[in-house]
Amino acid sequence: MLIKNANVFCEDSCFRKMDVRFEENIVESGTLKGKGFDASGYMLIPGLVDIHTHGAMNADTSDGIEQALKTMSRFYAMNGITSFLATTMTYDEIRLEQAMRVAGSFTTETGATCIGINMEGPFINPLKKGAQASKNIIPPDFAMLKRLNKAANNRIKLIDLAPELPNALDFIERAAKLATVSLAHTAADYDTAMQAFENGATHVTHLFNAMEPFLHRSPGIIGAAADAGASVEVICDGIHLHPAVIRAVFKLFDKSKICFISDSMRSAGLADGEYELGGQPVTVQGGKAMLHDGTIAGSSINLMQAVKNAIKFGIKQEAALSAATMNPARAIKMDKYIGSIISGKQADMVLIDKQWNIKKVFVKGKEFA
User: Fold this and answer.
1) pTM here?
2) Residue 263 a catalytic site member
3) What is the Cα–Cα distance from 289 to 87, expressed in whole angstroms?
4) Which CATH number covers residue 54?
5) Most C-beta atoms within 10 A of its C-beta, which of 29, 48, 130, 304?
6) How confident is the model at residue 168 (pLDDT cuts 50, 70, 90)?
7) What is the mean pLDDT of residues 181-191?
8) Strand 48-53 vs strand 81-88: parallel, antiparallel, or unpaired?
9) Residue 166 sits in the same domain as residue 34
10) What sign does the CA torsion over 229, 235, 239, 242 have?
């Protein structure tokens, strides 16, 4: 297929008017001969990449059933997200193994591509558990990780843990050979976090949330991440982080290291009401998801909404788009295949108008309908 005259978001984070020819992968771009779809007045952007999403439309990765992932996949594609990591919660090994088996073998021709698994928990600090179930929290267990990764057909792409836990630093060194290691749900101080980065961690889960604050005499994991050049996740729902904090993140961190995530739960795409996350009841009111004790849970947004929110908060659209496409793909070492519109990569693209309304979505070259 050939798209003509689109304002294409390129790999250098600039927009250029050009044509794009594609099949399953991008074939070529530039000024091309031939008839095609005239996209004059539209922007052609890479399909968004959500590396931290638990669910949507009353479906959740941890349900451990294929239908849940099908539902999620269609919802994501409908909203311009063409790749996602199916993200688990803190459950016992039996429940996690089932979720891993299903997500590890899941494929679809009618929605976003599940590019792997984000394992959030159970190796976290109970003091910073957030909306994770405390009864299932355990110290880092590399043998368990290997069992779960085997069940997932070696498709765990992101491993989240607290680096201050017993044996965590050794675990990080070994786990970093399997996947990207992220620091999460942690009370780690600056020095401990720096040790974790030196041992192979390269990422931080939902920055500012479920961690020690960034203080002038105690910079904690946030200061360490900035010094170490780690990639960091940001939830742009206007609830988890104040807009001023999001703007500050873009000043503190290299823009290429900032990854927008949805951290969405099963309420995404649905109305306020009663839901469940990680085996715990959640009330969603005004779009804000909370456990019954008042703890903020996951979000009810999708990644395209996060991009739009960031732009409203004062982030330039080019930086916001990179944070939802190239940056997360790079953070999980998938940027060779997805995240930008360049020859050889998957033809995952979204055609949008100037008001950011979606006109067409392509997943591996096929138009989603």
Assistant:
1) 0.97
2) yes
3) 17
4) 3.20.20.140
5) 48
6) very high
7) 98
8) parallel
9) no
10) positive
The CATH number of whichever domain residue 35 belongs to comes to 2.30.40.10
Q: Is the per-residue pLDDT at 347 higher than 90?
A: yes
% the chain with pLDDT above 90: 99
Report the C-alpha gap between 254 and 229 in whole angstroms: 8
Alpha helices per DSSP H over 64-119: 66-78, 93-105
As a whole number of Å, the end-to-end CA separation of the chain is 16
pLDDT at position 301: 97
The total of other beta-carbon atoms located within 10 Å of residue 335's CB is 18
Could you tell me the residue range of the domain that residue 320 belongs to?
48-338
Contacts of 242 by beta carbon, 8 Å cutoff, 6+ apart:
none
Q: What is the pLDDT of residues 279-305, one digit of tens each?
A: 999 999 999 999 999 999 999 999 999
Decide the pairing of beta strands 37-38 and 2-9: parallel
pLDDT mean over 195-223: 98
Q: Please give the biggest Cα pair distance in the chain.
A: 62
Which of the 8 DSSP states describes residue 110? S
- 212 and 287 part of one domain: yes
Rounded to whole angstroms, the Cα distance separating 275 from 34 reads 51
Residues 355 and 225 in one domain: no
Report the amino acid identity of residue 176.
Answer: A
What type of residue sits at position 164?
Answer: E
Task: Report CA-CA distances (Å) from 275 to 70, 89, 133, 201.
Answer: 19, 15, 15, 33
Please say if the pLDDT value at position 369 is more than 90: no
The Cα 238–Cα 57 span in angstroms is 21
CB atoms within 10 A of CB 110: 12
* 337 phi/psi in degrees, rounded to 5: -115, -30
**Catalytically annotated residue among 50, 237, 263, 335:** 263
Beta bridge partners of residue 48, listed in sequence order: 81
**Residue 184, token pair as written in the block:** 């999460």
Residues 52 and 29 in one domain: no
**CA 69 – CA 155 distance, rounded (Å):** 15
> How far is the C-alpha of 243 from the C-alpha of 253, rounded, in Å?
16
What pairs with residue 18 in β-bridges?
6
Residue showing tokens 């931080």:
204
- CA dist 274 and 289 (Å) reads 9
Token pair for residue 126?
């109970």
